[in-house]
Amino acid sequence: MKIENENELHEFMVSEGLEDLSKVPVEKVKFGRGVKVAFWFLRIYIILMVFLVIVGFSHVV
User: With a threshold of 0.90, does the pTM exceed it?
Assistant: First the structure.
């Protein structure tokens, strides 16, 4: 959608009920079980990698 001028933009926003942008409804995203499992796996993986890096550096020093 191409808007030519500011008046047209204002008319569009009023027609869509978006006159005040702070009132635009925002829905919270609901993640599925697979996504939750993937994020927990990533958290555990990151903690494990940080632990292995600390162990590796402790052997060098």
Answer: no
